[in-house]
Amino acid sequence: MPLILPVRGFTPKIGRDCFLAENATVVGDVEMGDECSIWFNTVLRGDVNSIRIGNRVNIQDGSVLHTLYQKSTIEIGNDVSIGHNAIAVKDPAGDQGKGHRRLLVRIVYLHSIAVDVAAIAPY
């Protein structure tokens, strides 16, 4: 059973028909759309700021999404796939890659896998 924890008065909100692997962790201010999949060893840490995930988002094994205290939120649009062991710590990834902003790890959108770890964003 996935670990779902409230933090600072925020309880994660999970949409309909979502799959969460038995060892996925979802903490705090996290809102997930419908038909998402959160795979094994993935951590969504909304403990210091918000994480918003659209519909039909696939976050693959070992990924970590974490915000920066009072500096950033994470917003992922619809139909986005985040590949194995990706680390996302900064700005929005829009629907199908539109409105792309730089992350501490770049996310490649729609039917792609996040593999590029060279994009560093200024604070």
Please explain how this structure is put together.
The chain has about 120 residues and is mostly beta strands. Helices cover about 0% and strands about 35% of the residues. The protein contains no helices and 11 strands. The chain has strands at about 5, 15, 20, 25-30, 35-40, 45-55, 60, 65, 75, 80, 85-90. The strands form 2 sheets. Strands 1, 2, 4, 6, 8, 9 and 11 form a 7-stranded parallel β-sheet that branches. A 4-stranded parallel β-sheet has the order 3-5-7-10, with no helix packed on it. The radius of gyration is 13 Å and the shape is globular. The N and C termini lie far apart (about 35 Å).
What is this structure, in a nutshell?
This protein has 123 residues and is mainly β. The chain has strands at residues 3-5, 13-14, 19-20, 25-32, 37-38, 43-53, 58-59, 64-66, 74-76, 81-82, 87-88.
